[in-house]
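Data availability (excerpt). The following record was deposited with the supplementary files.
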Amino acid sequence: MFLTFEGVDWSGKSTQAELLAGWLREQGRTVLSTREPGGTPVGEAVRDVVLHGDEMTPWAEAALYAAARAEHVERALRPALDRGEDVVCDRYIESSVAYQGGARGLGIERVLELNLMVTRGLVPDRTFLVLLDPAEARRRGAGRLDRIEREGDEFMRLVDEAYRSLAAASPERIVALDGARAPEEIAEEVREHVRALL
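Predicted structure:
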């Protein structure tokens, strides 16, 4: 299974990705737990540039994320899936579509097309979207901000809006979760969905 987690920064998606990977291992399954950008030496280098580097144009940002994702898919995700492992990834294509396509104004379809091309169409079996009011998410992350997280409230509102539209467009694949609930309550809902795939 290929399972991804999405959401605005500080929504709790990383916590949920870790909880699910741990639960799958408890079921005796082999799991690759990874993140984007990252997961490979190239991906981690890109992560440092996009999150902690200088300001850059929106298309440069989108292209760097896509380059890291192309490497991640070929070097880590596809090999793990080919070996019969489960993959749990913290962020994937929907992040680029929401952040660069939606909030940066590059166009949802254009950014989606770029990412489907560089990943050769690899789409998750399920994407768990942890929805949390952007203002609440910002309160959770106060004082620990990278280059993307320093964007203003309007930017994060646009990201949230783009995520919600993606979920509405693909309800069979994207599972929207209420991120305001207790982490264990959210995790149990995630496990219910995953049990149906086992």
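Summary of structural features: The chain has a mean pLDDT of 95.
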